[in-house]
Design a protein that fits this description.
By secondary structure, this protein is mainly beta. The protein has a single domain, classed as Jelly Rolls (Sandwich), CATH 2.60.120.10. The chain has one helix and 26 strands. Strand 3 and strand 4 form a beta hairpin. Belongs to the pirin family.
Length: 322
Amino acid sequence: MSNLDRRPAARDLGGLQQTSAGPALDLLPAKEVLLGESTRVRRLLPTLGRRMVGAWAFVDHYGPDDIAASSGMQVAPHPHTGLQTVSWLLDGAVHHRDSLGSDVTFHPGELALMTAGHGIAHSEQSPVSHPRFLHGAQLWVALPDADRDVAPHFEHHDTLPSFSSDGLRTTVLMGTFAGATSPGRAYTPLVGADLDLTAGADVEVPLEPGFEYALLASSGSVSVEEASLERGAMLYLGTGRRSLRLRAADASRLLLLGGEPFEERLVMWWNFVGRSGEEIAEYAERWNAGDERFGAVVGYEGERLAAPPLPPVPLMSRGRVR
């Protein structure tokens, strides 16, 4: 999924200086953004006060939207570098094409994982004949320096590890959670897990004290320790927790994201992750020039997205937390 902001801010991410030294319960504000032709998303990361959670560097939550009378999601071909995109659906279907030749339609409960590495381009669309509702999350994971130029690749996993207990069904998207490991390849210690709670559930979920975590309410509302979390909002949980108590009066879906705090400093602008403003400027120039670094998306009918103009001043660091 693309960042379609025509005036994107450059963000310096990573580093341990401002990582929480212990548990937290910080509500992260969302910003509504228009994605493509008609899809509105709630951008939860990066946001005021928080740039990353582990290696998770970008979180968009969209829907549930009634798209029966529309074309639904329509995101033209665009590039990425230095990151992984993690696509997760709760309702609907998305047709993914990329410059590797991948041509896949994925559905709820399936993992679509694209590793951009050195450079890739892709498009995302609702199929012509699509379900009535569209609801999901798009997430980016920053790649560490040792792997940021890895050859791009795409994974589609239609079966993921899941287990149920005490009114909670857990599906592991990325990393390892409660002894279950996702087949999706991760390059840093992290976790992404979908938590599906029945009405009246009161559960304790295990956490790694060395990880920092955040919790997104995809639907419903829950009590998280002593805090309330409503649909479409995200709560930063900090570090140092071995477990987390969740209580749901009504049926609710949560997305748990966590990982070891990301030590490296990096710059994110538009759809690129790099290590300096000069690198980002080079990526944008090469994409707009049609450079072979990113390849071409075959099968998409329409123009690809152009990188927006760079800011009139050098891309500057803003830090992990503002």
